[in-house]
Design a protein that fits this description.
Elements lengths: L2 H13 L4 H11 L3 H4 L3 H5 L2 H5 L4 E10 L5 E12 L5 E7 L5 H17 L6 E6 L16 H15 L8 E5 L5 H15 L22 H15 L9 E5 L3 H12 L3 E2 L1 E4 L2 E4 L6 H13 L15 E4 L12 E4 L8 H9 L4 E3 L8 H10 L2 E3 L1 H4 L2 H15 L5 H25 L6 H20 L2
Parallel strand pairs: 3-4, 3-5, 6-7, 6-11, 11-12, 12-13
Antiparallel strand pairs: 1-2, 2-4, 8-9, 9-10
Length: 456
């Protein structure tokens, strides 16, 4: 590590000592940048690392709303507008009790480099609230009603709207923010702003959404994995795959893998792991999709609907299969630890493509890289979602709806370009096949050079 990197890292840790996820994300990126910083004094002279590790703007606000019992509840809302050097802030909104400043700053920081890799003119941001739509505030064991979610979203947007705009900041959905929530948020924005604009992505097709958007992150992770395997003259045909999660990323990655003749053995949620040794069918996965969209329940409640399946309560997808070729962590940050990474490698895993943001702990990443398997970090492998959000913005500007084939073809092209950019950047600096180095260097260079060109 260079003295410059060490100095900036030390400062970040001192200033953000209560934000472990943010420190982890910054350390993961900065420690890979030594090759590109050597011989390029312009980055240090213009304090690029110092500026990149400080968000351009942090917005924190209260969100008062009324539950169905007439009781006023208060949650906290956030928007991190991290970097806009190459385009308007772009990144999802997350509603979950785990949301805090550290988590959102890490997600926004990652988003800057992910969006840079997409080849589209998008800056990085992230936001959300500690509101939990899966838990009623007045009845344990029940979820918030649709009207409670609507009232929360309307209050949340009442404050957030003043910071948004199609050329300023364009949020999308993330954890627990799906088509229902995006609809309520968009409706409130439209009423307040007195305009229809593409200020949110992930919208329903009936009011400006894009075909393939719900599928895009999962599809993109599989496309990226296919590109990685192609460097070894392999395909996904017949590969035994494990997937974590049962949200959009996981289920659509599963469907794409099945369509490419891979065997998908797991899906999971907080209740445990749904495991089918011979592979889930397309009908199995679509049953999960319908259940999650309509009932918003847990997998343990419907396990008896899957022929030949087993359910492992509170288990992890990485520990239930004897033979694993590929792993797709698609749930949340730091879900896959070092011991689990060793299990994967020991049981034959040769590829890991991250569908979630930073799902592998630093110890797990070390295991993957030291074993020499193909490993793609989330900022590269899961960029398909934000890439398709960018395509939705283009369609909104044109007042057009592209066909599913047009969007899917563009998504394939973008994921291929992301792969090639990361692969070539790593090779250029002597780290061939190291997608962590390649993705970080390629993403950093584009943003840093834009910042240099625009002055400080």
């Amino acid at each position: 590590m260079s003295n410059y990197i060490e100095r900036v890292l030390s400062s970040v840790k001192e200033k953000n000592s209560d934000q472990p996820e943010f420190i982890q994300a910054v350390e993961e990126v900065l420690t890979t940048l030594k090759p590109v910083l050597e011989g390029n004094n312009k980055y240090e002279e213009n304090a690029i690392l110092e500026r990149l590790t400080e968000p351009e703007r942090i917005i924190i606000f209260s969100v008062p709303w009324m539950d169905d019992k007439g009781i006023i509840r208060i949650n906290r809302g956030y928007r991190i507008q991290y970097n806009s050097a190459i385009g308007p802030y772009k990144g999802g909104l997350r509603f979950d009790p785990t949301v805090n400043l550290s988590v959102l700053k890490f997600l926004a920081f990652e988003q800057v480099f992910k969006n840079s890799l997409t080849t589209l003119p998008l800056g990085g941001g992230k936001g959300g609230s500690d509101f939990n739509p899966k838990q009623s505030p007045h009845t344990p064991g029940l979820r918030c009603s649709d009207r409670e979610v609507m009232r929360f979203c309307q209050s949340f947007m009442l404050e957030l709207q003043r910071h948004l705009g199609p050329n300023t900041d364009v949020p999308a959905g993330d954890m627990n923010v799906g088509s229902r929530e995006i609809g309520y948020l968009f409706g409130q924005y439209r009423r307040i702003a007195n305009e229809w604009s593409g200020v949110l992505t992930g919208k329903a097709i009936s009011f400006g959404g894009s075909l393939i958007r719900p599928e895009a992150t999962g599809y993109g992770a599989v496309y990226f994995a296919s590109n990685m395997l192609a460097t070894k003259h392999e395909t996904l045909i017949g590969k035994s795959c494990v997937i974590s999660g049962a949200g959009n990323v996981a289920v659509y990655a599963a469907l794409k893998l099945i369509s490419l003749s891979a065997k998908v053995m797991t899906l999971s949620d907080r209740s445990g792991v749904l495991f089918k040794k011979d592979g889930l069918t397309e009908d199995d996965v679509r049953r999960v999709i319908r259940y999650k969209e309509e009932a918003r329940g847990e997998l343990e409640e419907i396990v008896d609907q899957f022929d030949g399946a087993k359910f492992f309560p509170k288990a992890r997808p990485w520990e239930v299969a004897d033979k694993i070729d590929c792993a797709f962590p698609c749930s949340r940050q730091n879900e896959l630890n070092g011991a689990e990474a060793e299990y994967l490698v020991k049981h034959g895993c040769t590829l890991v493509a991250e569908g979630a943001n930073m799902p592998s702990t630093p110890e797990a990443v070390k295991v993957f890289q030291s074993s020499g398997i193909l490993y793609a970090p989330g900022k590269a492998a899961n960029a398909g979602g934000v890439a398709t959000s960018g395509l939705e913005m283009s369609q909104n500007s044109e007042r057009m709806l592209w066909t599913a084939k047009m969007v899917d073809d563009k998504l394939r092209e973008i994921m291929s370009a992301i792969h090639d950019n990361a692969y070539e950047a790593a090779a250029r600096y002597g780290f061939q096949g190291n997608y962590v180095m390649g993705a970080n260097i390629a993403g950093f260079t584009k943003v840093a050079d834009a910042m240099l060109a625009q002055g400080f």
